Amino acid sequence: MYNMDFQMLKELSEADGISGCEREVSRVVKRYFEEYADEIMYDNLGSIIGLKKGNEDGPKIMIAGHMDEVGFLVRDIDKDGYIRILPVGGWWGHVLPSQEMRITTSTGKKIYGVVGSRAPHGMPSEEKEKVIKPIDLFIDIGVENREEAEELGIQIGDMITPNTECRIMNNSNYIVGKAWDDRIGVAVAIDVLRHLQNIEHDANVYAVGTVQEEVGLRGARTATHMINPHIGIALDVTTAKDTPMDKGDIGLGRGVILSILDATALAHRGLLSELEQICKDLRLDINYDAMTVGGTDAGNIHKTFSGVITMTLSIPTRYMHSPRLLIHRRDYMETVEVLAEFCKRLDKDLLERLRITTK
């Protein structure tokens, strides 16, 4: 029903890249930027930036999704060859036991293993009801001792990520995969450049795959310093509340979500109003999000230099910060549509009108 580049989403989802180890992801992003961007650049932390040029003196807009996913590092290899793990980003212990993981060595080799779990037989009830801390878990790679693990090339500090296949679900509008937080935002940024092909626009559009968002919005700060944009749009996921576990207004397949605030940023009111109007002009449903816990790249974008007109567009996902997340094609495509339309409309006059709303 909603046309999208599933192959691009699959490549982004299945690439491995925890915070500080995003290069495998950025290689995927670069291939698509080479097709849709006029210029490609990097900051010194590894964020990748694709520029679709407008007029030389046109406004600069930064559209950012973060490339890093939550995962783990190898913190120890015990004498029996079990891999002790260190979480990078937020994990809930319930989602990990018996999950298949892959370790990426320093040479890029992929080693597969399973998160250890106990059989319930004879387990005391108080232990069954207790959530295991992720740092107390281990990965069984099917070897006899530490020496075998080391011969495979595994070292302290190697990256660990879920081994999850991205695939289309039974209703083809639903897609499951890992790392939608926030590869889906990166995909939207790429797709905005694709939608602007062969279209004249005043704005200089910078699509950005940022790094290290899950550990403190770090790449957003350095990338924003490099671009010095007039307007910043952060793209990130929000929790879908349409399952038996969570009930609320935010759900998959309901369209564009405008984020009013999160724990790190408030939406610029003028920009919020402009995107609301675009949604109305395109006859799209509008949803709102107010996330009081957690933040997005907007938290660092809006505070850079003398301040950047900024807000976040959210894409709902089920089962965030787990090995498998679900998204919906409609939410993705309508987010792309709204942002592409905004980029077409953005000129000096619109920028000035947005600025006036805070004066």
Give the topology string: H per helix, E per strand. Answer: HHEEEEEEEHEHEEEHEHEEHEHEEHH
- Helicity range: 25-40%
> What is the CA-atom radius of gyration, in angstroms?
21 Å
Major sheet: size, sense and barrel closure? 8 strands, mixed
For the largest sheet, list the strands in their spatial order.
Answer: 1-2-12-3-13-16-14-15
Residue stretches low in confidence (pLDDT < 50, at least 5 long) are none
What does the average pLDDT come to? Answer: 96
3D architecture notes:
There is one protein chain. The protein has 359 residues and is of the alpha+beta class. Helices cover 28% and strands 26% of the residues. The chain has ten helices and 17 strands. The strands form three sheets. An eight-stranded mixed β-sheet has the order 1-2-12-3-13-16-14-15, sandwiched between helices. Strands 4-5-8-7-6-9 form a six-stranded antiparallel barrel. It has a three-stranded antiparallel β-sheet with strand order 10-11-17. β1 and β2 form a beta hairpin. α1 packs antiparallel against α5, α2 packs parallel to α5 and α7 crosses α9. The longest helix has 17 residues.
Brief summary:
The chain is α+β, with helices and mostly antiparallel strands. It has helices at 6-14, 23-36, 125-128, 146-151, 180-195, 218-227, 269-281, 298-301, 329-345, 348-356; strands at 39-42, 48-52, 60-66, 71-77, 83-88, 100-104, 110-115, 138-140, 159-162, 167-168, 174-177, 204-210, 231-239, 256-261, 286-290, 309-317, 325-328.
